Amino acid sequence: MKKIVLIIFILFSTKSNACLNIFSIDSTGRVHHLEHYFFFPIEFRQDYISKNLKALESKFNKKEYGYKNISDYGAYLLMASHFKEGLDLFRALSKKYPAVYEVTANIAVAYELNGNIDSAIYWEKTAIAINPIAHKNTEWVHLKILEAKKKTLSDPDWCLNNNVTGIVELIKERYVFHQNEGEEGNMFSDLIYQLEERFSFTYAEDKVVGKLIFELGDAYQAASTFRSYYCYAIAKYLYPALSVSADEKMSQIKRTYPKEAPGGNSVSDREKKLPDDSTVKKLIYRIVNRPPINNNLFTFINIEKLISNIQ
After folding, report:
1. CA separation for the pair 78, 74 (Å, rounded)
2. Contact 77, 42 (CB under 8 A)
3. Left (φ > 0), alpha (ψ -120 to 50) or beta: where does 6 sit?
4. How far apart are CA 268 and CA 255, in angstroms?
5. Domains of the chain (ranges plus CATH)?
6. Rounded CA gap, 177 and 32, in Å?
7. CA-to-CA distance for 278 and 44, rounded, in angstroms?
8. Structure confidence by residue, pLDDT tens digits, 163-187
9. Which residues share a beta bridge with 32?
10. Closest of 220, 222, 256 to residue 235, by C-alpha
11. For the whole model, what pTM was predicted?
12. What is the DSSP letter of 233?
């Protein structure tokens, strides 16, 4: 997903942009430093959406109808679950600005949220062709997600028998320990970055996102089984058919995870022991009970008028 900058830590319930290092334990029991970057956004802040919609409407009242303003307005419409209106805006923008990455990337998201996966794939490929390194070079993950969604339309169990990205073993193979950093390359970051931008749109069960988080759990086996544990817990909530596999992996982590992780009174205290079942249940409860978008908070200007004034 695009234009999502609201980050809420699931694991640590704090908001920060700092790059920390924590002591982590991999599946072999080896301890090392891992950069502290594991987080997903839980939900969109609705007051933030409303504030930015109003700010853009003020610009439109001043006749500032540039495509960037309208594209941003469309993005906030999508965050507010006004998927059809957002798609209408981006379809109009794409006719006038077919070579602008932000427009083509956003229309791909709009088509996806409206359930038109074929069109979403077309526009995602177009966006990648325009700017192959956009979004920190992670758009390949979004394309994989869309392709997996298409496959599940004809084979509902596709995600049970296949991986969304197919790179877990490559991540493990390339994972290299350094003195102060836990990973080499950016494949972990690619997966996490796309999940950050997607999770706030994922309110119901989602096979593809669930399997993607499950894959992230597998990848984390090379770095932090603590984080793997949480990934599996979230994955089986989003895709219940993964429950048996996830429970097996979580049980294995429980059996092998040390009772005490080294690090003394450092930030590694957060990984001294695995969470108990009640802690995991609280996390899932928080995800399940995210407040739905309240459309009474938002007032929208006339979309047709906005389209007619695209500069």
Report:
1. 6
2. no
3. beta
4. 20
5. 20-291 (1.25.40.10)
6. 7
7. 25
8. 898 877 776 666 554 433 334 446 7
9. 24
10. 220
11. 0.79
12. H
